[in-house]
């Protein structure tokens, strides 16, 4: 008999590896950019199915702009810049090295 699997739980953006510079971290920050999640929501203790649902919403938003930051309207482009600039500084402060590939990401 196969045991039921425990859903994978996300530790939260502030507890993520690489200072949060991961695919899930990008999903969360993009959700902030598009107003899908309130800025500051770290998704701590969320099941992956919830994050997947947010990811689908993000993809629908990016599709409107050809998945290109340069195609975002000025207000969204500025919001994207602010969120990502801050994230990069914070991740570096937490030890993230952008020169090192994130080979240990899930």
Q: How far apart are the termini?
A: 28 Å
Overall pLDDT level: 91
Q: What level of helicity do the residues show? A: 40-55%
The largest sheet is: none
Number of helices: 3
| Overall geometric form | globular
Low-pLDDT runs of 5+ residues are: none
- Compressed to H and E, one letter per element, the order equals HHH
Given the helix and strand composition, which structural class is it? mainly alpha
Q: What is the domain tally? A: 1
C-alpha Rg (nearest Å): 15 Å
Q: Would you report the number of β strands?
A: 0
- The percentage of residues in β strands lies in under 5%
Can you tell me about this structure?
This protein is 45% helix and 0% strand. The protein has 106 residues and is mainly alpha-helical. It has one domain. The two termini are 28 Å apart.
How are the elements arranged and paired?
Layout: H1 23-33, H2 48-64, H3 74-93
Helix pairs in contact: 1-2, 1-3
Task: Jot down its keywords.
106 residues, mainly alpha, 3 helices, 45% helix, 0% strand
Question: What is the compact description of this entry?
Answer:
45% of the residues lie in helices and 0% in strands. The chain has 106 residues and is an all-alpha fold. The chain has one domain.
